[in-house]
Amino acid sequence: MTLLQWRDTFSVGVPEVDHEHQKLIALINSLHTTLVADRSSPAVEEFLGEINSNIAAHFALEEKVMRDRRYDKLDAHKANHEKLLDDLRDIMDAYDMDPNLDEAILSERLENWFASHFRTHDARLHKRLS
């Protein structure tokens, strides 16, 4: 079952960044599939950890691209990255405290967390870099 679908509107026009966006969507979709099948599966915790490490590395790449291209909203974009990482840690902590969390709520939080950043900060970055 797919939670997030890649859309061209998610593209920022930098192949390495877009590739990582697609990879992150695939990870979130894999996590969602695992949650639907068995929300107490040890794989859920592994997926959350993998998403966290991948997103941190992705943000570092995206911020480097923004610095290299002298993106005028780097500070705001970076602040949103930090907020997203905090939110993801909150999601991980909530799952750690209660592995029987409702998978629909957890999946919705992940989808909102990711898609919101695409629709706002990454959409503006795409316009600036195009």
Descriptive notes:
This protein is mainly alpha-helical and 130 residues long. The chain has a single domain (13-129), classed as Up-down Bundle (Four Helix Bundle (Hemerythrin (Met), subunit A)). Helix content is 78%, strand content 0%. Helix 1 runs antiparallel to helix 4 (103-129). The radius of gyration is 15 Å and the shape is elongated. The model has no long low-confidence stretch (mean pLDDT 84).
Task: Determine the number of helices (DSSP H or I, runs of at least 4 residues).
Answer: 4
Would you tell me which CATH topology applies? Four Helix Bundle (Hemerythrin (Met), subunit A)
CATH architecture call:
Up-down Bundle
Q: What order do the helices and strands follow?
A: HHHH
Low-confidence runs of at least 5 consecutive residues: none
Beta content: under 5%
SS content category: mainly alpha
Number of strands: 0
What share of the residues lie within helices?
Answer: over 70%
CATH class: Mainly Alpha
Q: Whole-Å distance between the termini?
A: 33 Å
**CATH superfamily membership, which one?**
Hemerythrin-like
Radius of gyration: 15 Å
Largest sheet: none
What's the number of domains?
1
Mean pLDDT across residues = 84
Shape descriptor reads elongated
Structural descriptors:
mainly alpha; 4 helices; Four Helix Bundle (Hemerythrin (Met), subunit A); 78% helix; 130 residues
